[in-house]
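User: Second chain of the day. Same drill as before.
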Amino acid sequence: MKKTLITILLMSMTAAPAFAADTIKIAITGPFSGGSAPMGASMRDGAKLAIAEINAGEGIILGGKKMQIEAIERDDEAKNDRGALIALELASMEDLSGVIGTVNTGVVLAGDKHFQEKGITKIITPAAGSASMTQWSKAGVPDLSIFRFAAHDGIQSEMVVEEAINRNLTKVAIMYDSTNYGVSGRDDMMEQIKKQGSKLEVVASEKFNIGDKDMTAQLLKAKSVGAQAVLIWGIGPELAAFANGMAKMDMKIPLIGGWPLSMSNFIDNAGKNGNGTLMPQTFIEEAITPKAKSFIDSYHKAYSVDRIPSPVSAAQGYDAVYIFAAAVKQAQSTDTKKIKEALENLQDPVAGVIATWKQPFSKWDPAKEETHEAFRREQVVMGMVQDGRVVFANDLERQRLIKKSSN
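Assistant: Same format as last time:
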């Protein structure tokens, strides 16, 4: 009965954009079309699933009154200029309680200044590179309304480099796309190689562009200098071109990179050539806990799929809504600035599908970006592509999450 009601609520959210008077208005933004759509749409759908569950239950009680969450959706198409216009529009809404979303680093850099200027609380999820937060610490902003709910690039790059070191590799090639995300990811990996004091030598560092379909030149360079693995950072379907090119050139070496390698547009386009690809993950689509099973089953039923296009994105969108809702409840207000203050000091644990979140954020300190970063290393595992799905690369990590959920 509950799942049926949630499905009906999801349909009504899509069909009826008009808002009732007693609502908490949250904007959900991201690339719902284009190459980054598996991330953006999965995040949106996970967020809407959480909203439907909350609304089907007791809602959010403010001053003894049941409030419903209403979602305002905006597709930025992964375009910086469009993202900036959307941010400008949303920031001008006087009754907007907050914003959840964004995937592309360039979109964040183009638009988040409008939210910050107006003090609009935003939780970036499911992605955006390091620059999305370092822009504020570098500027020394004393009071920040922007939070991030994603495994930041520092965590991911650390894990990617650790994986190469644990395999006793000595020569690696770094491949990265020309976006802000790709360039910052390259820099993070280079910094981690230096920081971990490994014997890894970067024998090639090659760039590719969004829309490129043939990576022969980059791979030939890597092969000619004896690269033992390809460490890659990108966001779109171009990633599959590397897996397919490596298979064509008989390069039987590991492909290790950022979490977008788990997206459906990599897995589907790479096919069997994607098997063995490794990437950090905050959520793997496996029912290892009752909460995970409920979430996966509800998502499949609500959206008529048997595989979530981007499980990481969906789970992060889902948990971000519950965290935001907890902040609204604690603040006892729909005022975005009061919600921001509550987010910085959440009193009650929030049960999510990824984890039970205990004070995921704290008061902003420009010298410590992690104050507005929710994820820590222990909440991220290494995933591996296997026959069209992402599975745990290490069963010990799988068992760790199962054990942690039972405590």
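The first strand starts at residue 23 and ends at 30.

User: Great, on to the next one.
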